[in-house]
Amino acid sequence: MNANWSYPTQVRFGAGRIRELAECCTGAGIARPLLVTDPFLAAQPMVGKAAAQLTAAGLATAVFSEIKSNPIESDVAAGLVALRRGAHDGVVAFGGGSALDVGKVVAFMAAQSRPMWDFEDVGDQWRRAKTDGILPVVAVPTTAGTGSEVGRAGVITQLESRTKKVIFHPRMMPSVAICDPELTVGLPPKLTAATGLDAFVHCFEAYCAPGFHPLAEGIAVEGMRLVKEHLPRAYRDGADLDARGGMMAAAAMGATAFQKGLGGVHALAHAVGALYDTHHGLANGVILPYVVSYNRPAIEERVVRLARWLGVDGKFSAFLDWLLDFRESLGIAHRLCDVGVPTGESERIAAIAAVDPCAAGNPRPFDASVARRVFDAAVVGALR
Ligand SMILES: NC(=O)c1ccc[n+]([C@@H]2O[C@H](COP(=O)([O-])OP(=O)(O)OC[C@H]3O[C@@H](n4cnc5c(N)ncnc54)[C@H](O)[C@@H]3O)[C@@H](O)[C@H]2O)c1
Ligand SMILES: [Fe+2]
């Protein structure tokens, strides 16, 4: 598998394509890249090699890696300091969704005078942004889940309100994404499963979100088929490059599809992630069936169509059964209480989830009372 796409941005897809990183930077107009990654990856050979490649090409490169998984505002602020200190003119965002998001938001914030929270993805707030001076980004994913490499947003946790906020601007779309499945070979099975389910949930929620967007829906259903085919293989054998490639494509498709919208799974997963630091894909994977079940009256017909495309025999219940088996085969817990989420705080979670912008994309109303009901079910594993 080796291909160049120009949708939704320039994508260089294929094993070994990381060798084109320096050329991509130059093509994007970057002479002094700040490579933004996370502390674990910064110590891995792949980051050292990437930085060496850039330096060897004459690009004045520095590495910034002081970020958290589920990044927070101060991660972005520290990145901006590093960016200015080195007079960098672009960002190489290298890693999972956390590093990609921080890299993208840093490149965006380089041009802004207003605080970052003013650009939360609510209404047309993005129009407040200054566009002169937004720096170009080359995105290099090392997980196959968030699809942030082809997305126009970064997700940052606001500690004060304990909420995950989506910072959005169309110009946050990376200039180039290098999707090299070899970079995901070392991702352990647990993270492979959790990130892969994030990609699945992006596709599923986008497919079910209300509104007329057949482009997004077409991408979403094929993205889910790719996850069904490739995630079990990548989970069993991390070195299966074909499966890793299938997942990397599915991740990019998920983020492309969710331009249509997300839904209740993400609304709850954002709240859970902000409060308990749960891995985003894991939270999504656990919560998904409960939201599917609640949404049934609004999505039954389209789920039956989806089941046909996925090769799942039967109707809505068969799809839900398949989903539960699929999730179990990937070692994902059935109950939120098994991944460290306590039972006592459903009111707080529900209040946060109900105002998360993703809640508005759910095909059935997702207010605080619904969010509480679904969350309570997910904590203890009460399905149907
Ligand atoms: N921008 C978007 O549209 C979007 C969409 C979904 C999720 N997100 C956000 O992305 C974040 C989650 O990203 P993620 O799921 O990719 O996880 P992550 O970036 O937080 O990484 C999880 C862990 O995996 C490690 N890791 C990454 N690549 C590895 C590799 N190749 N080998 C071994 N270990 C590796 C990291 O060092 C880290 O410890 C969350 O903050 C979530 O809210 C953003
Ligand atoms: Fe997600």
Could you explain the architecture of this structure?
This protein is α/β, with parallel strands linked by helices and 384 residues long. 49% of the residues lie in helices and 11% in strands. It has a seven-stranded mixed sheet, with helices on both faces. The chain is globular. The protein starts with a strand and ends with a helix. The structure holds nicotinamide-adenine-dinucleotide (NAD) and fe (ii) ion. Residues 146, 198, 202, 266, 280, 284 line the site of fe (ii) ion.
> What is the first-to-last residue Cα distance?
41 Å
Shape: globular
Rg from Cα: 20 Å
Characterize the biggest β-sheet: 7 strands, mixed
What structural class should be given to the helix and strand makeup? Answer: alpha/beta
Q: What topology, given as strand order, has the largest sheet?
A: 1-2-9-6-5-3-4
Number of separate strands: 9
Beta-strand share of residues: 5-15%
Roughly what percent helix? 40-55%
Q: Count the DSSP helices.
A: 13
Averaged pLDDT, please?
97
Bound molecules: nicotinamide-adenine-dinucleotide, fe (ii) ion
Task: Describe what is shown at a glance.
By secondary structure, this protein is of the alpha/beta class. It is built from 13 helices and nine strands. The chain has helices at residues 21-27, 39-42, 45-56, 73-85, 97-109, 189-208, 214-236, 241-257, 264-276, 280-310, 316-329, 346-355, 368-380; strands spanning 2-5, 10-14, 33-36, 62-64, 90-95, 137-141, 153-158, 163-168, 176-179.
